[in-house]
Amino acid sequence: METERAARRTGWWAGVTAFGLWGLLPVFWKQIDWLSPAQVVALRAVCCVPVLVAVLLMRGRLGYVVRSLGRLRVVGLHTLTAALLGVNWLAYVWATQNGQIVTGSLGYFLTPLANVGLGAMVLGEKLRRGQWVAVGLAGVGVALQVVAVGALPWVALALCLSFAVYGLLRKTAPLDSLEGLTVESLMALPLAVGWLWWHPPEVLATGVRQGLLVASLGVVTTIPLLAFATAARRLPLSVVGLLQFLAPSLQFLVGALVYGEPVTALRLASFAVIWAGLGVMARDMRVASRG
Q: H or E element: which one contains 163?
């Protein structure tokens, strides 16, 4: 019993670490805002590879990943997921660099609700009453955003849809999170290197501190992923699902309080409606897990 409690405690802290770091990442992107979003994404892909390979070596899983590269279905699926992840990262970094962190957080608040909708439409999963209410409230929240901003929040929708479809495809993938991210990074590597060749970033010319920040991109990407993998193994899915709302909540606070992004009463109302939908879904998840 004590071992199980220790495992859950470790999983809980790992989940808080993963989603907390993801929620605070806009601060990191702001520190390297002399780079274009495409350069950041390309450097992130390049810097991820050695870190991921090192972790796989320590876990004795590198050979499995190398063998997986000979399977056409694995390569094709993860090439597609790499493209979706690239779109998600581009939108995320662009939103951060262009004063739309709050709008970006909206996308990640909507993602769990979009996952529910895709599960129903694509996988034929039957929605419970609470899930229908949550999805409906999300739709109302987006409509309020359109009224408040005067335009469709395309950044939030790009973040939401790219990551939701990414999650849907990864659900059918044979590789887990670490191995899958490694293959995705390898698939993206030629394009990333090519982009950096034609659009070389001025890293060292900007100073040692900036160079170290860029060099840490791989670690910044990998640590929350490994923490998330630990949480997913040691915690019930319902608990992980609730913890994931920590990331967009922190993004919202960072954008509004740290960088002073405008949050009008109507925009706040739209978030309140979406938070209500998440609350309904959270309660539904807890009831379902007990049943």
A: helix 154-171
| pLDDT tens track for 115-156 | 777 777 777 767 778 778 877 887 888 788 777 777 778 898
What is the per-residue pLDDT across 36-72, written as a single tens digit (0 to 9) for each?
899 989 988 888 889 889 989 998 888 999 999 989 8
Structure-token match 């900007």, residue found: 206
* CA atoms of 216 and 29, how far apart (whole Å): 12
95-121: per-residue pLDDT in tens? 999 999 988 888 888 887 787 777 777
DSSP helix/strand/coil, 183: helix
Half-sphere CA count of 230, side-chain side, radius 13 A: 20
Number of domains in the chain: 1
Average of per-residue pLDDT values in the chain: 83
For the range 149-157, what are the long-range contacts, defined as Cβ-Cβ under 8 Å and sequence gap of 24 or more? 149/103, 149/267, 153/103, 153/106, 153/107, 155/91, 155/94, 155/95, 155/100, 155/103, 155/104, 155/107, 156/103, 156/104, 156/106, 156/107, 156/110, 157/107, 157/110
Residue ranges making up the domain that contains 254: 2-290
